[in-house]
Design brief:
Length: 309
């Protein structure tokens, strides 16, 4: 079993990605760390705990609350995308499982040492927890096998500002620390998801007809997101977090990847959170970047996970 740690600012998109990991037969989710981001911090913790119950894994996977704020800057949550509770305004009941008292940063350093050379990390939210762990214990960079991060924009086509992707914009200082720590980083940028990780209304209807616990959960938590995407004339629901999770789970879905030098702007009225890539190759690469994915495999992977009762 491959040990996997998930870093998340749990909203509907993250919750669905969590279901994929929790249903994978060759993955052991050894912990979930919560970071600042999509919704109110305490609500994000509750969303992760509730998702574990939906997956039938309540009490089996520890949830570690982490950094409630970015390293330096201020940010805003995005209830217009996910709902006030991050889960489509579902107001789910409180889960039986309670969060761990141990801080997420301590959990990351402990798990990196326990599973040295084996631990994979999928970050679905801002990289604050990982940056603090790396600052506290730099050797985490070599102890962790791979850090997969849903972060950044390839071509400056932002989803929160003109040029920045949300996770990168919330805490660009943290992203810069992770990029330059010497870890094996795999980036899954926003434009790839927007182009190839969406579910059409017809595919949504197929998911609804599954009528499983997972499919009903999916249809409920994406209610606000559905209207948000329709108002912006998107071809369907974009699932960037699902894509980031599927990259390590289904490597064959990656059609193109490339090693590049990556950096991020941490200041400026327009530039904060904008991610830059050295396409010319003037500097040594520090990340592998997913440039294209097979949409059919993304949708199939999502459908399979939601079909399980």
């Amino acid at each position: 079993m491959r040990p996997l740690l998930i870093n998340t600012d749990t909203s509907a998109g993250d919750a669905i990605a969590l279901l994929l990991a929790l249903q994978a037969t060759d993955i052991e989710v050894v912990g979930i760390t919560i970071t600042c981001g999509n919704s109110g911090f305490d609500q994000q913790v509750e969303n992760a705990l509730y998702t574990l119950e939906v997956a039938g894994r309540g009490g089996q996977v520890p949830v570690f609350p982490g950094c409630r704020d970015p390293l330096l800057g201020r940010y805003r949550s995005v209830p217009e995308v996910w709902g006030a509770d991050g889960m489509g305004d579902s107001s789910f009941p409180r889960a039986r499982q309670r969060p761990e008292r141990r801080h997420a940063v301590d959990a990351i350093t402990d798990l990196a040492q326990r599973y040295a050379g084996e631990l994979e990390v999928v970050s679905l939210g801002p990289l604050t927890n990982l940056a603090v762990a790396l600052a506290r214990m730099p050797e985490v960079a070599r102890l962790v096998k791979t850090i997969y991060a849903m972060s950044g924009c390839l071509y400056g086509q932002g989803n929160i500002t003109l040029g920045a992707e949300y996770n990168a914009w919330v805490d660009p200082e943290a992203a810069r620390i992770v990029y330059h720590a010497g870890a094996n980083v795999v980036l899954v940028p926003w434009e790839v998801a927007a182009r190839e990780a969406f579910v059409t209304p017809e595919e949504e209807a197929e998911i609804a007809r599954l009528d499983t616990v997972g499919s009903r959960f999916y249809m409920q938590v994406t209610r606000v997101m559905r209207e948000y995407m329709r108002a912006r004339n998107r071809p369907g629901l974009v699932h960037a977090d699902v894509l980031a999770m599927l990259v390590p789970l289904v490597p064959a879905l990656v059609r193109e990847r490339r090693r590049l030098f990556v950096d991020i702007e941490v200041a400026g009225e327009l530039g904060r959170g904008v991610t830059f890539f050295d396409w010319v190759g003037t500097r040594p690469s520090n990340a592998e970047v997913v440039l294209a994915a097979e949409r059919r495999l993304v949708v199939d992977g999502l459908r399979r996970a939601l079909a399980l009762r």
